[in-house]
Design a protein that fits this description.
Shape: globular
Low-confidence stretches: 11-29
Structural class: alpha/beta
Strand order of the largest sheet: 2-1-10-7-8-9
Distance between the termini: 20 Å
Helix content: 40-55%
Mean pLDDT: 82
Length: 285
């Protein structure tokens, strides 16, 4: 299936994009080349010229210039549309609702995690790792507040005698959901110009539904499907979708992507997105 799909697989540390259908790939490459050959080169040349002039300035003049440029950039910034603002308000409401329903680590009751034995996360263990959700807890001030309230910790004891030891190390933090900047990058950069109302998007292991809500609120994609094998998270997404009237474009399927239903969903999709679902929640086989 993947040989003829635009499949975006996003791990916490990297992005892998598989080949799109030939027509979409050709169009996307042409647009990218046009941008690089035109606006990008002109912007780079101008940027180089400005940096050269700044290097020649004394410190006082340079500071004044940067202050003036900051004021000027505000003038040219494009304000968000009313539709975008409304979507952001809805997304933030969803985030508040989910935070109220989930534990601080955003794990489902009795959920089992499979810690990777090799690769980038081979040294992550239950003792030195904390699970957080980047979609719900990307605000550092909010995380600091949770730490002060004792809901989370950023450090763990590395000594057997923790009560009398100062041997501590920073915890590894792992997220099983996309952050807003990651989702913005997927839709506005990786998939720029390649989606429409007819596009069918599949999120494998949709978990809290972050990608589903974002796609419905900020993109023209008309068919958004999330498949989630954990019944707790599947039900959570279904309630959220219904509560915010997104069911016309969003559907949540409780099931396993490795089963027959998963194969059918992949075959019917134009875009497939995954976020470390096999790495942390499936046995080695």
């Amino acid at each position: 299936f993947f040989s003829r799909k635009l499949c975006v697989i996003v791990y916490p540390l990297s992005v892998h994009c598989f080949r799109a259908p030939s027509s979409m790939a050709t169009d996307t490459q042409a647009r990218k080349k046009q941008r690089l050959d035109g606006g990008s080169q002109g912007a780079q040349a101008l940027h180089k010229e400005v940096l050269g002039r700044m290097e020649a300035m004394d410190e006082s003049t340079r500071n004044q210039f940067m202050h003036l440029m900051t004021q000027t950039l505000d003038k040219y910034a494009t304000p968000p549309s009313e539709e975008r603002l409304a979507g952001q308000e809805t997304l933030e409401q969803i985030q508040r609702e989910l935070r109220a329903q989930l534990a601080a680590d955003c794990m489902a009751p009795q959920e089992e995690v499979v810690y990777p034995k090799d690769g980038a996360f081979a040294d992550y263990t239950p003792q030195n790792t904390v699970h957080m959700d980047n979609f719900l807890y990307s605000d550092e001030d909010l995380i600091d507040e949770m730490e002060q309230e004792g809901k989370i910790s950023r450090y763990y004891c590395t000594s057997a005698a923790c009560g009398h030891s100062r041997s501590v190390a920073r915890l590894n933090i792992i997220s099983h959901s996309f952050s807003e900047p990651q989702m913005q990058f997927i839709f506005e950069e990786v998939l720029r110009g390649g989606v429409s109302e007819a596009t069918r998007l599949l999120d494998v292991g949709s978990r809290t539904g972050a990608l589903l809500y974002y796609a419905a609120l900020f993109t023209p994609i008309g068919h958004v499907v999330g498949i989630e094998r954990n019944n707790y998270f599947a039900a959570l997404q279904q309630r959220t979708v219904a509560a915010h009237g997104l069911q016309k474009r969003v559907r949540v399927v409780e099931g396993d992507i490795l089963g027959a239903e998963g194969a059918e969903l992949i075959a019917a999709s134009d875009v497939v997105v995954m976020h470390n679902v096999f790495e942390w929640f499936c046995a080695d086989q």
